[in-house]
Design goal:
Number of helices: 16
Shape: globular
Bound molecules: D-xylose, nickel (II) ion
CATH topology of the largest domain: TIM Barrel
CATH superfamily of the largest domain: Divalent-metal-dependent TIM barrel enzymes
Strand content: 5-15%
Oligomer: single chain
Length: 439
């Protein structure tokens, strides 16, 4: 198949049709890219991105069954299908109206039998990607290196007990950073695939964490050397594939970065599907990362907490998207990060049209979440209640605690003069009822 082939024949540019019927799912009912909310276009608040690995490399295979998704671009030799996949992907981005995409080095081009051959494959495919980017205006939200699929990485990459493997990972990241520069990527992600362990008996955890920190320092140094201007991001995940993953959740990663003096060079890419795997609520890590000024980007998907494994479903729940967008608005946006759909259609959703329906539905869920959150933030009711709850820290002894100038002696003196504190209601149900008004 040549570059002129249409992979999604019969599907044209997805329109915004706010009054379309319920059965009409090939149009946006909420997402109106150019519409301005709180001084910014919807597309700039949301910064949607399509991921390459699930949507274009995925076949529907799972640990129990063979591929179910017959994709015309997956035919031919590995290099032929890599080229077709790229054309199919750009046709999809353009028809969907999404301006960003994300990929692993090995999604874009097949691994060769040597590092040099892999690099040549990647060079060839990224030449084509660059051409398609300039033809369509679609940009790279982030690049990442696949440091977990190849058998050499079975014991980890940057945390591998064998430095030879760490060196391979380093060489791969060096090329990944060159590719990020070539394609103008706005971010670069490190997801610690097999950076973790299954048994404490064969693992020197202190050594492995130090090696990982030193690995990141090499990446920072090389980024500076080549003048790459993108944001570095770490993506936490508590389990899968390892029993214990070092980057468990937002707070573990923030602690790691601060401990090794890397917190100025990295932010976090939060995936709510991982957050719920860690036993937290959907929005927990979004809020925690943002509280420390470390929320860089979001892998906007969802899991099924009742199953307890990583299902990477499309995010369709507007309560969750409202909670995420509330934090995004409160921190002033996600740029240079965005909302990347690290999500896959179910293996039973076999039609190419399902790929569109999934993305449209999730984009509408986030657009609806943005509308809800903008309304909620503009009216300021919840913000007012929050302010009132912490009012005692705005004057007197509270102000001194706030500023860090107070002492325990002052605390004692205060209690001796003022006695027992009065009970104050937390008003959780009132907050929940107010929130429901906006959803
Ligand atoms: C896996 C991760 C992965 C990263 C990119 O669970 O979500 O897909 O986003 O390597
Ligand atoms: Ni994931
Ligand atoms: Ni992810």
């Amino acid at each position: 198949m040549a570059s002129g082939t249409e992979f999604f024949a019969g599907i044209s540019k997805i329109p915004y049709s706010p009054s379309a019927a319920a059965r009409d799912v090939m149009c946006f009912k909420q997402y109106n890219a150019e519409e301005v909310l709180m001084g910014r276009k919807m597309e700039d608040w949301l910064r949607f991105s399509v991921c390459y690995w699930h949507s274009f490399c995925g076949t529907g295979a799972d640990p129990f069954g063979f591929p179910t998704l017959q994709r015309p671009w997956n035919e031919g030799t590995p290099m032929e299908s890599a080229r077709m996949r790229l054309h199919a992907a750009f046709e999809f981005f353009t028809k969907l109206g999404v301006k960003y995409y994300t990929f692993h080095d090995r999604d874009m081009a097949p691994e060769g039998s040597t590092l040099q051959e892999s690099n040549r494959n990647l060079e060839e495919l990224t030449d084509l990607a660059l051409q398609l980017q300039s033809q369509t205006g679609v940009k790279v939200l982030w690049v990442t290196c696949n440091l977990f699929a190849h058998p050499r990485y079975m014991n980890g990459a940057a945390t591998n007990p064998d430095c030879h493997v760490l060196a391979y990972a380093g060489a791969q990241v060096k090329k990944g950073l060159d590719v990020a520069k070539k394609l103008g990527a706005e971010n670069f992600v490190f997801w610690g695939g097999r950076e973790g362990f299954h048994s404490t008996l064969n693992t020197d955890v202190a050594a492995e964490l130090k090696h990982m920190a030193n690995f990141f320092k090499m990446a920072v140094k090389y980024k500076e050397k080549i003048g790459l201007k993108c944001q570095f991001l770490i993506e936490p995940k508590p389990k899968e594939p390892c029993r214990h993953q070092y980057d468990y959740d937002a707070m573990s990663v923030i602690g790691f970065l601060k401990h090794y003096g890397l917190d100025r060079d990295f932010k976090l890419n939060i995936e709510p599907n991982h957050t719920t795997l860690a036993g937290h609520s959907y929005e927990h890590d979004i809020v925690m990362a943002s509280a420390f000024g470390m929320l860089g980007s979001v892998d906007s998907n969802t899991g099924s907490p009742d199953l307890g494994w990583d299902t990477d479903q499309f995010p369709m729940d507007t309560r969750n998207t409202t909670l995420v967008m509330k934090t995004v608005i409160e921190q002033g946006g996600l740029q240079p990060g965005g909302l990347n759909f690290d999500a896959k259609v179910r293996r039973e959703s076999t039609e190419p049209e399902d790929l569109f329906i999934a993305h449209i539905g999730a984009m509408d869920a986030f657009a609806r979440g943005l509308r809800n959150a903008a309304h909620l933030v503009e009216e300021g009711l919840l913000a007012g209640m929050l302010k009132e709850r912490y009012l005692s820290f705005s004057h007197g002894i509270g102000q001194e605690v706030e500023d860090g100038t107070a002492s325990l002696e002052q605390m004692e003196d205060y209690v001796c003069h003022n006695g027992e504190p009065a009970a104050t209601s937390g008003r959780q149900e009132k907050c929940e009822a107010v929130f429901n008004h906006y959803v």
